[in-house]
Design goal:
With about 160 residues, the chain is of the alpha/beta class. It is about 40% helix and about 15% strand. The structure holds 4-nitrophenyl phosphate.
């Protein structure tokens, strides 16, 4: 089982969007059984809260349901257990490193993007709804790159490269 954790600040905008997007990609690729997906925030503001309504609506427009997800905080155990702990921005990255020290599995999510030059998924919380569309574009692209990386490193596909 390969374990992927998406991490942002509040766990109500970017990381649940990434979780839902990656789950959909895995379902479409018939890989849901082999890869575990979760998301968490580095702050405690929104524990047990559903995703921001704007994030829910933007995801729903692309056929992704994230309404059932609930906020939780990233833990030391997460960093021990997940193969990929993927930070949306540098602040999240540093918050994760602060929990456990630098680890190879703590990475910037946009390392996996092939079409965006940015290294951070911008925080859409205080912006307009257009921010959520751009966040989704970035997340969809990086999710495709992430799946390629997982296939190359963890899954053996002799007939389905
Ligand atoms: P997220 O967005 O980290 O993508 O979930 C935010 C959500 C809430 C806050 C900041 C960012 N906040 O300050 O409450």
């Amino acid at each position: 089982m390969v374990k992927v954790l998406f991490v942002c600040l509040g766990n109500i905008c970017r990381s649940p969007t990434a979780e839902g997007t990656f789950r959909k990609l895995l379902a479409e690729s018939d890989l849901s059984h082999g890869i575990e997906v979760d998301s968490a925030g580095t702050h405690a503001y929104h524990i047990d809260k559903p995703p921001d309504l704007r994030a829910q609506q933007a995801a729903a427009r692309r056929g992704i349901d994230i309404s059932y997800l609930r906020g939780r905080r990233a833990t030391e155990q997460d960093i021990d257990e997940f193969d990929y702990v993927l930070a949306m921005d540098r602040e999240n990255y540093h918050n994760l490193v602060h929990i456990k020290g630098a680890r190879d599995n703590i990475r910037m999510f946009l390392e996996f993007s092939s079409t965006f030059d940015e290294d951070e998924v911008p925080d859409p919380y205080y912006g307009g709804s257009g921010g959520f569309e751009r966040v989704l574009d970035m997340i969809e692209d990086a999710c495709r790159g992430l799946l390629k990386d997982i296939k190359a490193r963890h899954l053996q596909y002799k007939n389905h490269p």
